[in-house]
Amino acid sequence: MKVGFVLPALQKPSGWRSYALGLIGELLDKVEGVLFVPQEEAAAAQQEFPHLGVVPIAATQNASLQSPSGALRLWQTWRSIRSLKVSLDLVHSLEAYPTGLVGHWLAKQCHCPHILTAHGTYGVIWITSFFDRILYRRVLASAARLCPVSQATARRIEQTFGQALKHVPIDVILNGNAYYQRVPDEIAQTRRLPSRPTLLSVGEVKPRKGYHISLQVFERLQKELPEVRYDIVGNCPDNAYTHRLRESIRQKGLAGVRLHGTVSEAELAGFYRQASLFLLTPQEDAGLQKYVFEGFGLVYLEAGAYGLPVIASRCGGVSEAVRHGETGFVFAQDDVDGMAQAALRLLTDEALNRRMGLANRRWAETLTWKRCAEQFWSIYQRCVEGK
């Protein structure tokens, strides 16, 4: 079976990159793959998948009808696809839109089924753009299958675009991960609480990740454990949100907070090994921001690979990545007191910390890319056979 994979991004570390590398890597013993990527991603795609065909096109992501430049890139993409001489049995778009729009055009060109994966925000945000939502509805309505990465993402898409999906089967396939393969089990098994209690967050500094909430959690903890420390690792843009966080840290005297920015893989591993627990509290707000949410939360499984328990907020698919009361604790998005009390328990009760951390490791070991690929392979076969 020859499958065209339409990728949103591959160069920089992201959930999209992890998804593409993990899923496609496991599928290659079952299918012949061809990658369709933006021109600027072609070299990275060839490096990661040297034995696959790579077709550069104008855009698969960061393009929208909301701007003239985005509309131009989509038009250029449509024209390039119309001129392609390629035969495919199936097209799989690894994001809903605009990646899915490109996959839709490609499937039409090749007269084959089209499958969509949807990751949280980009499965619904297009309702806010008049022209994009028209196109997106057509993409959804003509899909052979919609495969969100969580039940929460599936429900949100159904609530937002239900009419377009009335004839489209929906198969939720939870994310896989490879973290447990890169981190030896011995590290999780032998982990002990560090002498200085340390919280860790990993993820880009932006409102959706909820750092304004996690800082409030830390502020409460610091009153009970003055020696507590909080490491924040991830891209830290020079913008109003980051400035607001830094000012809050300064005004409240949160001396134990350190924003490290982007670090190497070796440095990141060091932060995980030095941490007492993992804290990340994603948020969604009223208004337009209600369409911005976590699709799943792969980073919670990365914490699990190191044997760390987690504290999280109930946002999107987070509750499917974190098992409340087993691998960590999940609270309402604004329940700062609940999060702080749970963090205090995990920082002072080593037996509880260890039990939940090891449960998180075992949970990560069950959510494999092999499992994910086998589920997709079954769907591929049914779609190609017209079932």
Question: What count of helical segments does DSSP give?
Answer: 16
Give the H and E element order. EHEHEHEHEHEHHHEHEHEHEHEHEHHH
Strand order of the largest sheet: 3-2-1-4-5-6
CATH H level, superfamily name of the largest domain: Glycogen Phosphorylase B
What structural class do helix, strand and pairing data support?
Answer: alpha/beta
Mean pLDDT: 95
Q: Report, as a whole number of angstroms, the end-to-end distance.
A: 16 Å
In total, the number of domains comes to: 2
CATH-derived architecture of the largest domain: 3-Layer(aba) Sandwich
Please name the defining characteristics of this protein.
387 residues, alpha/beta, Rossmann fold, 2 domains, 6-stranded parallel beta sheet
If you had to describe this structure to a student in words, what would you say it looks like?
- The chain folds into 2 domains: 2-176 and 368-384, Rossmann fold; 179-366, Rossmann fold (3-Layer(aba) Sandwich), CATH 3.40.50.
- Helix content is 45%, strand content 15%.
- It contains 16 helices and 12 strands.
- The protein has helices at residues 15-27, 42-48, 68-82, 99-110, 130-142, 151-161, 179-182, 185-189, 211-224, 240-251, 265-274, 298-305, 318-321, 336-348, 350-366, 369-384; strands spanning 2-6, 32-38, 53-57, 90-93, 114-118, 145-148, 198-202, 229-233, 257-261, 277-280, 310-313, 328-331.
- It has a 6-stranded parallel sheet, sandwiched between helices. A 6-stranded parallel sheet has the order 9-8-7-10-11-12, sandwiched between helices.
- Strand 4 (90-93), helix 4 (99-110) and strand 5 (114-118) form a beta-alpha-beta unit.
- Helix 3 (68-82) packs parallel to helix 4 (99-110) and helix 9 (211-224) packs across helix 14.
- The protein is globular.
- The two termini are 16 Å apart.
- The model has no long low-confidence stretch (mean pLDDT 95).
